[in-house]
Amino acid sequence: MAAPVQASRVFASLQPADSAAAHTGELEAGILMQGGREVRVSGTAELSASPDRARVTIALSSSKAAAAEAKGSVQRRLDYIVQSLRQGGVTEENITVSKEFYRISNAYQMEATVSVIFSDFNKLWSSCNLLVEKLDNSVNISPPHFYHTADCLEKLRREVCLGAVTNARRKAQEVCRLVGHSLGKALVIREEEMREWEDQTEADIKMKTATIYAASKVLATFEIKGKERHKKNR
User: Where is this gene product found (predicted)?
Assistant: First the structure.
């Protein structure tokens, strides 16, 4: 009975090239001689995404002896706020207004809240600055709450996984060159790990605390093609 064919293995450690996408790679490559040739590699990537939305709450109130005066005081400012936001490019669906009217002792209290969602942060700052300048302390504007939409997070996960696959393939090509072969098609690609975390840096409370990071690790098996044959000139 013939002895089983042993698989020869090649281990390589290659330094990843610098990349703006912060891709890194780890290698464990094996050339399998049992019925075919394959190279197995692991690739990792790390990416970050800044928030794509911000929510601001604008609160205003008035307390008057007459109900109409309390309502009118708030409504005039409310109309100005909504008009300014629309002129600043904020769409109607991103503006939510709520009102509350009640009586306290001998006065009538009128309160209103405007919740605004911004996708353009330049518009956020310009709109808030304008309202502070025009209405001063008659309104209370909350600090922006930055967050990521589901589409933004899904895009981040997809891109970091593709980055890990790209890095794994690049490393597999380096291994094949090292042993004098060329890389073929991918046979198996499996994502082994996906991690997400939020930046806890307090250097810039406005943005950095909302930055999301994601890291992906994939294991990939590629086909190894035979050595290229060069035709001799006759």
Answer: Cytoplasm; Nucleus
